[in-house]
Design brief:
alpha/beta, seven-stranded mixed sheet, 7 strands, Ribosomal RNA small subunit methyltransferase G
């Protein structure tokens, strides 16, 4: 379905599947130290799931998690629905919508223990997409490249406005070009103001 540029099975496993699995340990360590005593029964939203990376991989690896795959493009949702049915996963739901809409929907707003995102947008945009969906005391985890320091620094204001703080930056091993990636982990300290997220398209056009 031409969802990624990578075509070879071995390369998919290394660059996408293993890369997605690599963020589990940083999430576990941060969650157990700051958010709660149980790591087996979490509600997780993958914002901009695309081909199910990392959300679909996390749902398989952590069967106790309830994983919501949020994706706005119908083509990708059709793929995700077929993949979930083929694998037989019972812990996944697929929502076709934009993050800006879901963040203002009271059925979803601040309803997740963890929000994750990989290869979706820069950090200051991702913060507005993801943090309104995270409960107070939960985590936002962005899978980023080998050198995200400048991007993270620019996102400081946006993270703060969403009611969160930067918890840590974890290096994770990867088969990417540089041999490592980073997991940027933010802790939700207080409720996100009701005006966020802004209208669809605004966060990317006018980053905070």
């Amino acid at each position: 379905m031409n969802l990624t540029a990578v075509k070879e099975e071995s390369e998919v496993m290394e660059r996408h599947v293993e890369d997605s699995l690599a963020i589990i340990d940083p999430i576990r360590n941060s969650y157990l130290s700051r958010c709660g005593s149980c790591f087996e029964d979490l509600s997780v939203v993958d914002v901009g799931s695309g081909a199910g990376l990392p959300g679909l991989v996390l749902a398989i690896a952590c069967p106790g998690w309830k994983v919501t795959l949020l994706e706005s493009m119908n083509k990708r949702c059709v793929f995700l629905e077929n993949a979930v049915e083929l694998i037989g996963l019972q812990n996944v739901r697929i929502v076709r919508d934009r993050a800006e809409n879901l963040g203002q929907n009271l059925d979803f707003r601040e309803g997740f223990d963890i929000a994750v995102a990989r290869a979706v947008a820069e950090m200051r945009v991702l913060a507005e997409y993801c943090l309104p969906l995270v409960r107070v005391g939960g985590l936002f985890v962005a899978a980023k490249g080998h050198d995200p320091q400048e991007e993270v620094a620019k996102a400081g204001r946006a993270i703060h406005l969403m009611g969160a703080s930067l918890l840590q930056t974890c290096f994770v091993e990867s088969h990417s070009k540089y041999g490592q990636r980073t997991a940027i982990i933010c802790l939700k300290d207080s409720p996100t103001p009701r005006k966020y997220p802004r209208a669809p398209g605004t966060p990317s056009k006018m980053p905070l």
